[in-house]
Amino acid sequence: MRLEEAKALLEAEQWPGAYHLTGLAVECALKAWISRQTRANTFPLRDGGKLYVHEAEKLVAQGGLTIHLQSEKAANPPFAIKWALVAQWSVDSRYDANTSEALAKDLYSAVTNRRSGVLRWIRRHW
C-alpha cells in the first residue's frame, strides 16, 4: 500500500512524500517478515525497543537476515548500491520538505527494481 501511495506522489511530483513512503514500505516489509517468524504471525510485543525502530539495518538484524544481506551485497553489486540508498533513509524524512526529485526517484527504483530491488530481496526470504 505504501508503494502505491509513493508512486502516486511521484506522479504528482511530490518528492518528499514519495521518498518518505518508499522508505516506509521497506520498513513495513521488514516488520512483516519479523512478524511472520512468530507463531501467532503478529508483531512481537515491545522488548525494550529492539523491534520498534525505523532503521532497515536494525530490522534486518532483528529478522535474522544479516548474513543473507551481506551475501547478497557481495554477490550482487547493483543490489548493494540499492541497499545503500535504503539504509540512508530515515523516518525523519517526513519532516524534510526539500527532498529532491532525483533522490525520491532513485529510492523508489532501488526498492522496486525487478532484478535487484530491495523488496524483491525481502520477498525471496518469505
Q: How many structural domains can be distinguished in the coordinates?
A: 1
**Average pLDDT for all residues:** 90
- SSE string: HHHHHHH
Number of strands: 0
- Ends distance: 18 Å
Q: State Rg.
A: 14 Å
What is the strand content?
under 5%
User: Outline, from the CA principal axes?
Assistant: globular
Total helical segments: 7
Descriptive notes:
The chain has 126 residues and is an all-alpha fold. It has one domain (2-124). Helix content is 63%, strand content 0%. The protein contains 7 helices and no strands. Helix 1 (2-11) runs antiparallel to helix 6. The chain is globular. The model has no long low-confidence stretch (mean pLDDT 90).
